[in-house]
User: Fold this.
Amino acid sequence: MTRTADAQASDPNDVAPAIEGLETIVSLSKRRGFVFPSSEIYGGINAVWDYGPLGVELKNNVKRAWWRAMVQDRDDIVGLDAGILMHPQVWVTSGHVGSFSDPLVECGSCHRRYRLDELPGAEELSVGDLADPGVIARFHLVCPNDGGPLSPPRQFNLMFQSYMGPVQDEGSIVYFRPETAQGSYVNFKNVRESSRKKIPFGIAQIGKSFRNEISPGNFVFRMREFEQMEMQYFVAPGGPPAAEAFEAWLPRRRAWYEAYGVDPARLRFREHAPDELAHYAKKAIDIEYRFPFGWKELEGVHNRGDFDLSRHAAASGQNLEYFDPATEEHFIPWIVETAAGADRAAFTFLIDAYREEEVKGEKRVSLALHPDLAPYKVAVLPLLKKRPEIVELCHRIKDDLKRDVMAVYDDTAAIGKLYRRQDEIGTPFCVTVDVDSLEDGAVTIRDRDSMTQERVSVDQVRRVILDRLAAARP
Ligand code: ATP
Assistant:
């Protein structure tokens, strides 16, 4: 719940983004089936995007990679899948009903609405400025669309709300969760007692969140419906255990993006200034990525102190203390949170993997996605689709591979074009069956990045591909 001004690309040591603008990725996404505008046949709905056949594979792989690193590989973290709808008191206690808002201004002539801190000329505004009714005049801000006069800022709550049950009144209001974290806090006792975890331990969750963003945009970077991957790590109270956990999680989370292929030069840390910290936070550092539109938050690591559990304990009247058998003390744990976005991470991996090069006088586009993230791991292609024995062998190999990985067969073009299509969607391996295969029982495995080709006997194909995928795994 950190509402902060987005960092601008003013770093003197700025690095170039992986791609110039978003058009290449947006059009590739549409053309190849990664991401489509939601409800497109009705003209779309702002800031909601649908994942197509390849996009859903990519995003599932991103979530799987996160779950592997945060739950499967760890003895001290367990998973949770809490409901999107929660008791409305949760959001009062957490502070969201009162203060999960952004400063909104409206143009007096064209009536467009903007987030004040995202207006041109508002980059340097302090938190105090953002709440000042005189800020528009003081900084000579005007509507970026038509130069019209802007209203003083008002706080706009970002939570979507609805009514539960048949009666629509104050008492039946429910909120669509704007973060997954609260589900972990209100389940702290259930999870601890059922899993018998001892502090320090964590609760990890992946799930949809909703925010009525004032100025969404930049494709899937800022949406109104999105998915988060958040982990809450419960530690002993007082400064040192939380500080220690914070210092451990920060580089570990950055290393996760690097392990899955993001160029380290395009990642950096940015610490929140004291006046920028959310009301609950003792310390917050963002992991930022150099997007084509500037350095922006990819993930936040937050030291939340005992704010969440203390507040929920007081408001619910439940005892949320932890009993430490070693010291025989009862206490409210402190929390260190790692808060990432599944869409933002998938978007980052896509951007950072984009390559254009010239090969034999022709442009080659490829996505150098980490094999664990690639939608398809392998494509099985016939050199001659007119030969039924070749096609049949292709299907046999593909079906065999499908037991373990996403594999696909394609014969709708000549081999050169088939390779280019697979390169463009990031398929790490192509297996080609040719006339010789029928004689020597061997096929060609082509590597996406080096474009090298290797002859492998048919009965070894599955083993070779699985070994290479395992070897690439972080
Ligand atoms: P921002 O400053 O970009 O609005 P935030 O600081 O409010 O983000 P958090 O509340 O810390 O973000 O959320 C954790 C993560 O969830 C973010 O780092 C981001 O990856 C993701 N996220 C947040 N809001 C959105 C959104 N509107 N669309 C897509 N992902 C989002």
